[in-house]
Amino acid sequence: DTGVSQDPRHKITKRGQNVTFRCDPISEHNRLYWYRQTLGQGPEFLTYFQNEAQLEKSRLLSDRFSAERPKGSFSTLEIQRTEQGDSAMYLCASSSYRGPEQFFGPGTRLTVL
Amino acid sequence: AQSVSQHNHHVILSEAASLELGCNYSYGGTVNLFWYVQYPGQHLQLLLKYFSGDPLVKGIKGFEAEFIKSKFSFNLRKPSVQWSDTAEYFCAAASGYSSASKIIFGSGTRLSIRP
Fold this sequence. Notes:
heterodimer; A: mainly beta; seven-stranded mixed sheet; four-stranded antiparallel sheet; 11 strands; B: mainly beta; six-stranded mixed sheet; 0% helix
């Protein structure tokens, strides 16, 4: 499968714990995006990388959130000291220099108890 | 502020009925427009896109959308729906000035097709 992959697909954690999610984009895509989706809403933009550079961050991305893409390939999204309000689906997408359309992965569903 | 509005939260149709889902956007300047679809248990897939040129764009599975700049609209249409079209549909917009830009999504329209 050559699409965007995300790991894990589901994560259940207790409030206050740290969690880390991984995203592997489509292999030739140099742009990678993170979004968050809650029930009944469309995805909301969190952050964006071009190669290894983080070029934009949403105000939604509080200090407890950090994202990296150290070698310009896969990316990680870490949430520290999770809160119940962090429960959501975290989506990763990638795109190439050929065009603005983004291709989405299956998401990681986070449940904070 | 940039925003995308989808006015129908849930639409229920019978098979073979015609479909039109409304979408309005608020975006300064040049805009790229998209419709994404999420079938039950699957991830978001691109249905169709508009960047420039012919305002009537055709996508996969018989869907089409029309960009009407004067109305800031990008409505999705299909002449005859099938049960397999049951899904959630998201209208979305991004800046047209860059090929790398965050996408602003609407809240989605859930489409249910009665067999």
